[in-house]
């Protein structure tokens, strides 16, 4: 196994573990269950609605939105 595939596997495992954690808590992985996203910026900005879960913060709604693609 080369270094590139080792790093890729590690990143995929971490991403899958995070999704499973959010699934058990029924939280959207994009906004972490808040329903909105606060962009990281050095300027003050307002929060944005989470379009991945339609601002519900629910994993089920996030999953529906991702399966439509």
TrEMBL record:
From which domain of life does this come? Bacteria
- This chain's protein is named Methionine aminopeptidase
Native organism is Metabacillus litoralis
């Amino acid at each position: 196994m080369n270094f590139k595939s080792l790093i890729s596997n590690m990143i995929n495992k971490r991403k899958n573990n995070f999704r499973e954690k959010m699934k058990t808590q029924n939280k959207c992985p994009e906004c972490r269950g808040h329903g909105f996203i606060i962009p990281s910026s050095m300027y003050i900005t307002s929060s944005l609605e989470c379009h991945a879960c339609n601002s519900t913060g629910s994993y089920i709604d996030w999953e529906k939105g991702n399966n439509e693609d």
